[in-house]
Amino acid sequence: MNDSIIHFYTDQPASSQSFLPVGQKWIALPKLSGERESVISPELLRLFFGDRPLWGSQAPTTMRHAKSDRHLLIVDYAETSQFALMTDGLKQGIKMPDGLVCLALQGDRHRGQRQRAWMALRGNLHLTAHYRMDCPVRSVEGVISMVPAVAAALAIDAVTPPAARPAIKWVNDVLMDGQKVSGGLTGTHVQGDTIESALFGIGVNVAAAPDLEAGTALLPAGSLAPYGVDLAYTTHTLIRQITCQVQRLLTGNTQNVYQEYRRYAGFIGRIVQIWPETEGSMMATQPSCEGRVLDVLPDLSLRLDSCSDPVRSGRMTFVD
C-alpha cells in the first residue's frame, strides 16, 4: 500500500486552491503540524518564495510506486524562471528532494533555450521538476533529453479529445494543429561519469498563446484553450508523466522513452530545414541543411536523406 505524502506549499492560497485534492485546505505554515512533517529545508523555501508568508497542506499521493514523499511548490508570481532558480540552488549546494516540482502561476523576464525571452501567463502551465538519478551518463545519454517532450505529449494527449493528437517537433516542442503549445528544457548535474540529478522544465500553453519575441519563433504559438482543459488537472497529469519517464530511465527501459518520442514525432517523413542555433533572429543566418527526415535516433540525432552524417544540433523548420 502506498503511504507516501505529497506536501504542498504556496504564497497565495486563493490562486492555488484548485491544485489541492477536493476537501483539502491550506494552513498557515507556522501552524502546519502532524506526524509527517516535510523534510524540505528553509533554504529551499526561501529560494523560491523569499520571505513571503507561506501556507501548506498535505495529502496522500495518487502516484503509483511512489517510494518517497513528494513536494509541490506553487509560486503565485515568479520574477525569474524556476529552472534558473533550481539550477542556481544546486550550484549553491542547496539539497532538493527527489520529485520536487515548482510551479509558477505567472511571471516575466524568464529565459528559455539560448536565453530566448518568454513570459509566464496566468492560466498557463510552467513547472520545473527535480529528480535524483544516480545513474551512469552512458545509460541515459540522449534519451534523457526526450523526457520533457514525451511527458508533455502524453499529458496533452490524455487531457484533450482523441482527435486532437499532439506532435513533437525536434527537439522538445509539442505542436497542436501546427502551432507550438509546449516546450521543454533538460539540465543535468554530473559528477564524473554519473548523472546525480536532472532538471526538467516544461511549459504548456493551457489558457492562452503568449506573444513571442520577434524573429525567434519558428512556428506560431497556440494553446489548449479550444479544448477547455483544466490547469490543475493538466499539471498533475504532466507530473505523473514526467515521473513515469524518469522511472523508465532508472529501470533501464530507455527504449520505451525513445519509442514514445518516435510515436509522437511529427517531423519524420517531412522535408525540413535545420538552422544554426542562434540567440536572436534566424534572418541573419542560412540553413545548414535541408532534406526529408528519415528517422530520429536514440541519441536524438536526425537522419536526413540529403546528409551522409546524422544531424545533431540546430533548429528545425518545416518546408512542406
Describe the 3D structure.
The structure is a single chain. With 320 residues, this protein is of the alpha+beta class. The protein folds into 2 domains: 5-264, 2-Layer Sandwich (BirA Bifunctional Protein, domain 2), CATH 3.30.930.10; 271-318, no CATH class. It is 22% helix and 30% strand. The chain contains 7 helices and 16 strands. It has helices at 13-16, 42-49, 82-91, 137-140, 147-159, 231-250, 254-264, and strands at residues 5-10, 27-28, 55-60, 70-75, 100-104, 107-111, 117-120, 125-136, 167-169, 173-176, 179-191, 194-204, 271-275, 289-296, 302-304, 315-318. The strands form 3 sheets. Strands 2-3-1-4-5-8-12-11-10-9 form a 10-stranded mixed β-sheet, with helices on both faces. A 4-stranded antiparallel β-sheet has the order 15-14-13-16, with no helix packed on it. The chain has a two-stranded antiparallel ribbon with strand order 6-7. A hairpin with a 5-residue loop joins strand 14 and strand 15. Helix 5 (147-159) packs across helix 6. The N and C termini lie far apart (52 Å). The mean pLDDT is 90.
